[in-house]
Amino acid sequence: MDFFLESLKASWSLILSLDRELFRAVWTSVYVSVWSIVFAALLGIPAGLAVGLLEVPFKRTVITGLNSLMAVPTVLIGLLVYGFISRQGPLGGWGLLFSPSAVIVGDALLAAPIVANYTLSSIRGAHAAILPTAMTLGAGRLRSVLKLLSEIRFGMMAAVISGFGRVISEVGVAMMLGGNILGYTRTMTTAIALETSKGEFALGIALGIILMSVALLVNIVFQILQRR
Amino acid sequence: MGPLYRLRMLTKRHGHKAALSIAGLDIFEGCIYSLTGPNGSGKSTLLGILAFLSPPTSGTLHYDGKPVEWKGRSLVPLRQEVTLVHQSPYLFEGSVYSNLAFGLKVRGIPEETQRSRIGLSLETVGLSGFEERRARALSGGEAQRVALARALALAPRVLLLDEPLANVDGRSAEVIRLVISGLPGRGTTVVMTTHDPDPPSCLNGEVIRLEEGRVSAPPGAPETPVISMRG
To answer: Which residue of chain B is at minimal alpha-carbon distance from A136?
Structure first.
C-alpha cells in the first residue's frame, strides 16, 4: 500500500512541477488524437450517412462489416499500416514510419468505423419525417441532409467522443507506428507502458491521472455544447 | 385552363402490394379537395406523389401542363410550389421562428421579409407571439398550427394536408378549418385527407373517395376512367 501511496505522491509532484517529459507526452497524445479524430470524422460520417441514407448494394453485409471493424485489434491496424509505410511498403518513400503522422493515420483508421457506426445508429434512430419535411419545405437533397445532420447532432457528438476516447487510450498503433520516441512520438499510453515495464510507477500514474482528466474534460466540453 | 395536376394510369406498389391504382384524375387550381377513405385506401400515398416526394411505380403525372420527371434536381422547383403538412408534423429542434424561417431561407428570401411573413403566418393560425417558444415543447394542437403556419409562410401554390383535423383540440380544429376555407380565395389549391366520409361543409370543396387505392366515381357521374373534378 505504501508503494502505491509513494508513487501517487511522486506523480503529483511531477504534475505540479510541470515535468517537461510528462507534458510533452500529453501534448503528443492530444495532438495525434485530435487530428486522427478529425480524419476519422471525415471518413466515418460520410460512410455512415451513405450506408444509412442510400440504397447501397449488400447493405446488411456492409453494416455487419462496419460493426466487425469496430472490434479490430489496434495491433492489427498497426501491422497493416506498418506494411504500407515501412521502407519496403508501397508508401515507404513518404518516410512516415515512426512519426506522429503515422500514428494519426493508424488512429484515424481505428476510429473511422466507430464514427461510421454511431452515425448510422443516429440516422436509424432519427425521426423518419426529417428528410421529407425538409424536402417539402423546398430544400434540395444536400440541404435536407445537412438539416438531418443538424437534427441528429447529439448522436454525431457521441460518435466523435467515442472515437476520441478510443484513440487517446490506445497503445498498439502508437507503439507500432510511432515507435515511442521520447519527445517526438511518445504518447501518454506508450509512456505508461514503458514506465511500468521499467518499474517507474510515478510517471505512469501521473500520466494516468492526466489521461483521465483529458477524457473528463472532453466529455464536459461536449455536454456543455449539447446543453446549448 | 387545363388541370393543375393530371394523373393517368398511375400506380404505386409497396413491394407486392398495390397501394394506388388511379386510371385518371384531374385536379384544378384554386379549389379545395377532400380525399376520403378508410385506412390503407391510399390517401397518404397519393399525397406523397402530389407533393413530389415519392415517385409512382408506373403511369404519368402532369403538373401545370408538363410531365413530371422524377429526377432529383428537377423536383426541387416543383417542391417549392407544393407543400405537404404531415398528419403528425415534424418540427425541427429550435424555436418556432427558426422552424418557419427554414423554408424561407431555402428560397433566399431576405430576412426582413422573412420576419414579416412569419409574423403574419403565426397571426393567421392564432399563435401570435409564439416566435421564441421552443417548437418541441408545444402541445399537439399548437404543433399542428405551427406546421400549418410554416407552410403558409411559403405562400405555396398547392397545400397538401394529411388529416389536418385529426388529433387536435376543438379550438385548433376551428382555426385550421377557418384558415383552409380562406385559402382558395388567395389562389391556393388545397388537397386534404380525412377519415370523415362527409367533410365539413364549410370547406365547400370536392370530395374524392378512395377505396383500396382506386378513385370511386362520384354519385351520378358517367362511367368514365377519368374523373375530372372542378371544385
So the answer is: B83
